[in-house]
């Protein structure tokens, strides 16, 4: 479904990513891991359309990706994903309003009722059914991330991109969020690409783990070589949860 | 207990805040009484009773020429100019600041112009305004607008441009275009900041108003102060200055209350929220 061919990303003479080839099939859950500065988030932003690849082609369903973000790719960042001036319900309804009301991005009357009902249903699915009228500042970090997920899913994106979505959460909350995202992934038949620095999380959630790192290293000019996928491990999802420690050892070797 | 840890309660704070003001008033009254003991017709430090009767006269007696009550005519004229100036400047700050903050091509086009205008001392432009617009109301309002609008525009533009990039990206993944992002993401988040910018602009706005009225006017609080200066009428000047201070405080207070009432999300601690 998503195809990257020979993608390079360079900032000036700094090469971040080199020769990235990737095929993501529909319905897969791809975890991207790697050391800091290996270009995990850069790769995600390139797929998102927030940044452009210097070279190479990126195709979504056979068509080249437009050079800016669009509703076909949803995203949840680690922070700042939700709008602080909108209520929980308003945050989710916003996505529907943009499509249906091009001029004012606001819906009224029965169309607003319908959009709110749809949004409330999605919020119930992420466990925020009781918090519809709170502002994000009144909620915990975990609740804000639940909201960010609901906000993205209301648009039914072809791909959901997660940039360290649970990195700032407590371990207990994080486990809840793992269960939630796995359930949503199955329920809504999502295709997910998740960047994380937590290897356990990568293996327990993903159907495929991609490790980014530099293949070559020039000690005198470390910036001249970019990172690429050094490991690409497909996991059988059923077995993945029980065998994750073994797979983890394999990745570390 | 260390002074940095001492919390002041509401009533205690009121007493502490009133203390220096009362002290200052007391010092004034003592000095004024001393001068009047030496010279009963002293004009430099009028007694409170003198100021009260002078102000009462301005409020009660119609002006010989216009037939209007001087104090109220002055207040109305000044507030009208100030309100127009503040209103136009606020509207400009919102429109131009929003556009500059959200749209990089327009920021590149108009940014240097706004910065250029902002560094010109507005009073230096007053002769140009008087020549171009005449000595009427337009020039005075224009001085206030030119004086405060560029700073407000830059403040709003900076605030909007500093919105987290993640929010703008997120809005696009939700299907929003430039216009929708401006309307639904940037504009509402600029509003509380606009009220802050307005409050900070109140001081300069009064300065430009009084300056314009002092130089060319026939009515207004600033005009009156500079007019009666010729007769050393401190008994009019001091109440007028106090009245200006009172009006400025009331405006500042109103802007704060409006912000809290209209944008509760921007004041999370005030609304008693938080888990």
Number of helices of chain A: 7
The major β-sheet of chain B equals: none
Percent of residues in helices of chain A = 25-40%
> Number of DSSP strands of chain B?
0
Tally the helices of chain B: 10
Provide mean pLDDT of chain B, rounded.
Answer: 91
Q: Give the oligomer, counting copies of the same chain as homo and different chains as hetero.
A: heterodimer
The residue ranges of chain A in which pLDDT falls below 50 over 5 or more consecutive positions are 238-253
What is the second-level CATH architecture of the domain at 79-263 in chain B? Orthogonal Bundle
Strand proportion of chain B, as a percent range, falls in under 5%
pLDDT < 50 stretches of chain B: 271-275
User: Structural class per helix/strand content of chain B?
Assistant: mainly alpha
Q: State the strand order across the main sheet of chain A.
A: 6-7-8-3-9-10
Large-scale geometry of chain B: globular
The rounded Rg of chain B comes to 24 Å
Give the tally of β-strands of chain A. 10
What can you tell me about this protein's structure?
- The complex is a heterodimer of chains A (253) and B (275).
- Chain A has 253 residues and is α/β, with parallel strands linked by helices.
- Chain A folds into two domains: 1-72 and 158-253, P-loop containing nucleotide triphosphate hydrolases (Rossmann fold, 3-Layer(aba) Sandwich); 83-156, no CATH class.
- Chain A has helices at residues 40-48, 88-100, 109-125, 141-153, 171-187, 199-205, 237-252, and strands spanning 2-11, 14-24, 29-33, 55-60, 63-64, 73-76, 159-163, 192-195, 208-214, 227-234.
- In chain A, helix 2 (88-100) runs parallel beside helix 4 (141-153).
- The longest helix of chain A is centred in the middle third of the chain and has 17 residues, at 109-125.
- Chain B is mainly alpha-helical and 275 residues long.
- Chain B has a domain at 79-263: MetI-like fold.
- Chain B has helices at residues 10-38, 48-60, 70-102, 104-119, 122-133, 137-161, 165-173, 178-215, 221-228, 234-262.
- Chain B is globular.
- Mean pLDDT of chain B is 91; it is low at 271-275.
- Chains A and B meet through strand 6, helix 2 and helix 4 of A and helix 7 and helix 8 of B.
